[in-house]
Amino acid sequence: MKRIIKTPENHLFLKPVRLYLDDLEHIVQMLKVRGFEVKLSDNDYEFDSLEEIKEYRGAKTSVLNINGKEDGSWPDISINFSKRNISLFRHGGDDQNILLIWHELKDFLNGKLYWHQRVLDLRIWGLLLLLSPSFILYPLIFGVSASLVKQLMWFLFPCILVPLLISFLWSQYFPGLYVDRRFRVLNFWQRNSDKIILLLLGTVVGVFVKWLFDFLFNR
């Protein structure tokens, strides 16, 4: 059985993630196994190793470029990490080796997305906030009393704003590259962030279900 290789776009943007030294070493090893010469740099300097990045840039950085070259002076694969996104570049036409590593890197990076990064998407909650006035307008059109609409308004906006705020704070403070082992980096809040966010979302959902039940059966 062989994998069907689809020709990807030359330039792909991925969501920012949090990576640790083990992850960065794995990316470098993936490139080397495929026969690529690996170059590390940021916006100002080139580095000989990941350890050198930690020595001169500290344990956390938001900018890192990992370039892989098969031959020639131009990189065939480029992974550019920034605070806003991850840019995955492909050069070299339809070379099968480059296409394979392209898919492997894309799958690896997408696999590092936490579940709440998919749920707490700024675009989704921002769109819901923009559409929220229509959620109030429709009940008025269908003759729902103004007092019930007011209750809906006071309930609906916090239910959208709280996840939106969590999503914004998460996008600002969570993504990053830690050139250190995971167990040395994480504090209590970082180790338990999944549980904390799940608790907050569960609270919001529970309040909504209770309000909906009261709205439907205690009118």
Describe this entry's structure for a reader:
It is a single chain. The chain is α+β, with helices and mostly antiparallel strands and 219 residues long. The protein has two domains: 11-113; 116-217, no CATH class. It has helices at 21-33, 50-57, 96-110, 115-119, 122-141, 146-173, 182-185, 188-191, 193-217, and strands spanning 11-14, 18-19, 37-41, 46-47, 60-61, 64-69, 77-81, 86-90, 176-178. Strands 1-8-7-6-3-4 form a six-stranded antiparallel β-sheet. Strands 2-9-5 form a three-stranded mixed β-sheet. Strand 3 and strand 4 form a beta hairpin. The protein is elongated, with a radius of gyration of 23 Å.
* Annotation, overall tally of beta strands: 9
Q: Spatial order of the strands in the main sheet? A: 1-8-7-6-3-4
Strand content: 15-25%
Enumerate the spans where pLDDT stays under 50 for 5 or more consecutive residues: none
Structural class: alpha+beta
Topology order in helix (H) and strand (E) letters: EEHEEHEEEEHHHHEHHH
Radius of gyration of CA atoms, rounded to a whole number: 23 Å
The helix content, as a percent range, equals 55-70%
Short synopsis of the structure:
The protein is of the alpha+beta class and about 220 residues long. The chain is built from nine helices and nine strands.
Top keywords for this entry?
about 220 residues; alpha+beta; 2 domains; 3-stranded mixed beta sheet; elongated
Topology:
Layout: E1 11-14, E2 18-19, H1 21-33, E3 37-41, E4 46-47, H2 50-57, E5 60-61, E6 64-69, E7 77-81, E8 86-90, H3 96-110, H4 115-119, H5 122-141, H6 146-173, E9 176-178, H7 182-185, H8 188-191, H9 193-217
Parallel strand pairs: 2-9
Antiparallel strand pairs: 1-8, 3-4, 3-6, 5-9, 6-7, 7-8
